[in-house]
């Protein structure tokens, strides 16, 4: 017989099922902004090495820090939606704006459980966090595609793929996709705020400054400012 599910896992599963139901009924936002979260839950993102693609060899990430011969095997979701420089760039924006100090890490910041399970960090309102988490995951996925396209274009232009020059080219290829992922994240937040504002027939009153990799700034409406309790 199958082993019984530990009580804490059963509780987390029940809580997350309720979270998904809330997101799909109470958060009035286009489903394209919710799709990445749903596919992440069911391991449905087409990443070689996922459970439904277990026989497909793991494909190295274009960032150069995952998928090598010496890597320990683990779900590619951990890399692409948490450890990849593209994912980190989005997470850093959340940490910077919310100024959170998490006991889970020495450096502080949001935890993977808070992001993946849409659990608002201490001191944050749940409703804005629903939008922030879904927008962040969607932008990480968008950035992954951008990085893949950028490196493919780089190869087509005859970029070197050996030694130190390869590392330099990889970092160069990352720069554009990182910025596009950040911009996409803030655009999604601003788009949600605008839709919500139009539905309420009011004018946006909360704005946030969007940091960029080149220290430029862009002002856009955002639930990030509404998240702090």
UniProtKB/TrEMBL annotation:
Biased composition (Polar residues): 202-229
Span list, region Disordered: 155-179, 196-229
Name used for this protein in its record: Uncharacterized protein
Organism encoding this protein: Volvox reticuliferus
């Amino acid at each position: 017989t199958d082993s019984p599910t530990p009580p804490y896992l059963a509780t987390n599963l029940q809580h997350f099922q309720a979270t998904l139901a809330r997101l799909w009924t109470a958060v009035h936002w286009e489903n394209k902004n919710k799709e990445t979260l749903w596919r992440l839950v069911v391991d449905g993102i087409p990443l070689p090495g996922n459970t439904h693609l277990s026989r497909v060899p793991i494909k190295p990430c274009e960032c150069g820090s995952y998928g090598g011969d010496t890597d320990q095997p683990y779900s590619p979701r951990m890399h692409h939606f948490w450890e990849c420089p593209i994912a980190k760039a989005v997470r850093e924006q959340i940490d910077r704006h919310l100024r959170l100090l998490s006991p889970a890490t020495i450096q502080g910041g949001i935890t993977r459980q808070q992001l993946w399970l849409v659990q608002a960090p201490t001191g944050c309102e749940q409703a804005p966090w629903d939008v922030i988490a879904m927008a962040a995951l969607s932008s990480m996925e968008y950035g992954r595609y951008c990085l893949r396209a950028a490196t493919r274009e780089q190869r087509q232009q005859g970029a070197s793929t050996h030694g130190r020059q390869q590392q330099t080219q990889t970092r160069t290829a990352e720069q554009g996709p990182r910025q596009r992922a950040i911009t996409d994240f803030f655009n999604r937040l601003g788009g949600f705020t605008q839709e919500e504002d139009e539905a309420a027939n009011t004018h946006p009153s909360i704005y946030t400054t969007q940091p960029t990799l080149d220290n430029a700034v862009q002002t856009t409406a955002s639930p990030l400012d509404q998240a702090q309790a």
